[in-house]
Structure formats: C-alpha cells, structure tokens
Write a structure and sequence with these properties.
The complex is a heterodimer of chains A (176) and B (293). Chain A is mainly alpha-helical. Chain A contains ten helices and no strands. Helix content of chain A is 47%, strand content 0%. The model of chain A has no long low-confidence stretch (mean pLDDT 88). The chains are: A mainly alpha (176), B alpha/beta (293).
Chain lengths: 176, 293
C-alpha cells in the first residue's frame, strides 16, 4: 500500500469531536477506558517487529482528536489476532477499536487496494479470491467434489444494499 | 458410534491454495463416521471485509448461517478465520434481538432469515468433543517416534467471550489432539502468537519474522514437525518457509502438516491419500520413519 502518512493539512488540525465519532462507530465504544498501560503493545506480535504500530499510542492520538492517525498505514498493520483484547486490564476491545478506526478511514475514502480487490471479488465470485478456472478444474482430478457456486445475483443485491460500490468505484484518496 | 452430519463450510483460502487440507480432512472424517454435506451457494465468511465495513461482514456471515439453517445442519469449518467470523456473528445475533431484527431486515431482500437454530464448530472442536478415548480406537499406527509442535492459531479461541474456550491463555485443544495420535506434543515459546498472515497484504516481511520465531522456538524444544489447523497459518509456515530461510540465511527444514494428515497417518490411511506430497516442505524423514513402523 502506498504511504498515506503525509496527510492534507486540514487533517493535521485537531478535531475535538473525533472521539465522539469513534465512540459511535461499532466496536469503538470501549476505547474511552484506556489508561495507557501499554499491555496491548507489549503483547502485540506486530509491534515486536515494526516501530510504526503501537496500539496504545493510536488510541491516545484518537482520544486527542488527531484524526490523521486513521488515515495512516499504521492502523492497517493490526492483524486482528485479539491478543490485546484478551489481556487489556481495562476491558478495552483494542482489536475492535482498530477495526472501528479502519471503518472510519474507509468511510472517508481511504481504502487500501487489497481491501478493494477483496470487495470486487466477493461481488464477482462470492469469495475473496478470484480462483482460476484451472484450479477449479483440478479439483476433479484430485477426487474433490466441485466447489459450490455462490448465487451472484444475491451478491449483487447485497452490494447494492450495503452500498459497496462507493468503496470500489472511487480511486484511493492520495494524501498530500 | 452414531453418524454425525455437518454442513461443510470451506471458505476461500482452502480451495484457492490449500487443497491438501481439504483432501485430508474429507478423507479422515469419512473414516471417523462424520458425514459432510457441501453448502450450496455459500459465500465469503465476511472476515476479510470487516476492516472495510463491519455491517457488511455481519450480513455476509449471517447469509452463510442461514444456508446451514435451511439445511438443518451445524456448520463444520476447517479455517480458523471462518470459524471466528461465523461463530462470533452466530452468537452476536442469538444474543441481541435488535441486531437480529436489523440484520434480518437486510437478509429479507436475499430471501433469507436468521433463526438461530444451528451451531458452528471447527474440525478440531468436533474431534475434541468426540473425546480422546473415542478417537484412540481409530488409531492403528501410533506415531510414537514423533515430536510435534502444534500451532493453534488465533481465531479459534480469541476473542474468548465469543469462542467458548475454557482457558484462553493456555488452550490445550490441539495438544490433546496430537497426543491422541501417539506422538509427543511439545509446548514452545510464543506458540499462541499470531502467524501474521493478514499482514502479508501490507508488509510482507512481518509474517516472515513471526514465522522465524516459531521455527526457532519449535526446533529448540526438539520438534520434528509442526501441525496447524488453519489454512492461513499453514500458508505462512509452509509455503513461506523457504522465503524465510532465504531472508534470514537459516535452515529450518521443518515440515508443517495439516492436523488431519497427522491423524490420518496414525489411523493407517495410506500417505498418498492424504495429499502429503502437496506440502512445500516435504516430510521425507517422517515418511521414512513411518514406513519402518
């Protein structure tokens, strides 16, 4: 994913209402309990091997209303393994908060290419991968039953219902 | 033993890249008297779109649950990610009347309705529910010569509020299943830490670092092979093993088996029926010792 770390100047400004936005987003409501002990970061497998992902720091910045935290790559580094959520002494569902922040970023047009590809494939095939025909044919030689097909009509309806085209249709917002 | 029927939910990664898991799982459960029915019309479990839109993820998962409800069968999964998404949404919808009404309103346009009549079980949970004693009756060639490092993965027991695990800090589900085969199951440092598969899309190096830790720690306690119960974990540990070796200039040569392959060997199923040759890191030494027993 291209770096989105340098963000437009308008997002550099502090937004005091941002915390309310997070609280209202599904999964974000527990972030207010964070008291910055850093247990999440200590237990995070990603934080061991990169210095740009620190869950407690992200929560702190979000609380302060520094919105550009959600437009950066770093929230997308969360692997959603829930180690932090299990161990948080304050009951903050850290992984869910990260998901809420990602959802906010996507709502505002910052969607990574791989997520857009996943959505496209789900609408086109029902699965996140566009499985090549040769591989589907190979199932037969391996003695496996054919892969059940998804009713694509339903996927199309679902895409309309959830307004997925707004995520796919637009080009990724480039920062700066 | 009474036959048990399930609706098999395959997910996306298994038919795309990990058919050896499907082949071996289907082969093994057949001998255990479990009947799997393919789920017609199933779609993505929803987990990959959770970061994009949480509501879409719930509707996608609920649609799968509805299909199984129509079949009147519990869902049988092979992938931890799918298990996590389906089990979580199943529990969320069963426990929250408002959410259920909201999701059902959306499912209506797809002619589906969530009723809450089925359960979601991962293969490992189904086998574990059968009990060690019942499983041991099927073992004809105990793998006593083998030391195995099990790698459970994340979503089958985290977040524990949805996953009904007794001890989320020390889940023994896979260790117990390995002991059933007669092999020795070893514990190692950070065995519960994520494989980082999802990270591959953003930073392809982090999963390799995480894999290196696991290979080193597993080898330190004398593991001959590793065993996984999730296609994503298997991707990182098996398919990426040579990449990790090149990147860190180290040699691991640690075969990573799918659990049903291990169980199948112990049940006396011929290795060629378990798709062992499809593994990237070939279990040559294992098969040699196996041939001698």
């Amino acid at each position: 994913m291209e770096t989105q770390r340098t963000v437009k100047e308008m997002y550099r400004r502090v937004d005091p209402n941002f915390k309310h936005k997070v609280l209202q987003t599904s999964g974000g409501n527990t972030f207010k309990f964070c008291y910055q002990c850093g247990t999440c970061t200590a237990t995070c497998p990603v934080a061991r091997f990169t210095d740009v992902f620190r869950p407690n720091k992200i929560i702190h910045l979000a609380k302060l209303g520094i919105r550009n935290v959600v437009y950066s790559d770093s929230v997308w580094l969360c692997v959603n393994c829930y180690s932090c959520t299990e161990r948080c002494p304050q009951g903050v569902k850290v992984a869910d908060v990260m998901r809420a922040l990602k959802n906010i970023a996507v709502e505002e047009g910052y969607i990574p290419d791989f997520s857009r590809k996943f959505l496209e494939n789900i609408i086109k095939t029902g699965t996140v991968y566009n499985i090549p025909k040769s591989r589907l044919a190979r199932r037969e030689t391996l003695g496996l039953p054919p892969l059940p097909k998804t009713k694509l009509e339903d996927m199309k309806k679902l895409a309309e219902l959830m307004e997925l085209s707004k995520y796919i249709g637009t080009e990724a917002k480039k920062s700066g | 033993m009474a036959d048990k029927e399930y609706a098999l939910y395959l997910g996306c990664i298994i038919p795309y890249r990990e058919m050896s898991y499907e082949i071996s799982a289907r082969r093994v459960v057949k001998d255990l008297g479990i009947v799997l029915h393919d789920m017609p019309d199933a779609n993505c479990c929803g987990l990959p779109v959770d970061p994009v839109n949480h509501e879409t993820m719930i509707v996608l998962a609920a649609r799968n649950l509805c299909i199984a409800e129509e079949m009147g069968l519990d869902i049988f999964t092979l992938c931890n990610g799918c298990t996590g998404a389906l089990m979580k949404v199943n529990k969320m919808l069963k426990g929250d009347r408002d959410l259920k009404a909201h999701v059902n309103a959306q499912l209506k346009s797809l002619d589906k309705e969530f009723k809450g009549t089925i359960k979601v079980r991962h293969m490992a949970q189904v086998l574990s529910d059968m009990g060690s004693e019942a499983l041991k009756k099927f073992i004809t060639k105990p793998l006593t010569f083998l030391t195995v490092a099990g790698y459970t993965g994340c979503h089958i027991f985290r977040p524990s509020e949805f996953m009904e695990v007794k001890n989320p800090e020390n889940p023994s589900i896979l260790n117990d299943l390995i002991e059933v085969t007669g092999a020795k199951s070893v514990k190692y440092i950070d065995e519960l830490q994520c494989c980082g598969f999802v990270e591959g899309a953003i930073d392809s190096q982090i999963p390799l670092y995480l894999a290196r830790e696991k290979f080193r720690n597993a080898k330190n306690v004398g593991a001959d092979i590793m065993v996984t119960i999730c296609p994503s974990c298997h991707q990182v540990l098996d398919a990426n093993q040579t990449r990790a070796e090149r990147m860190f200039s180290e040699t691991y040569n640690l075969p990573v088996l799918h659990y049903p392959q291990l169980l199948g060997l112990a049940m006396g199923i011929p290795p060629e029926e378990l798709a062992l040759k499809d593994l990237r890191v070939k279990p040559t030494t294992l098969l040699e010792s196996f041939g001698k027993t």
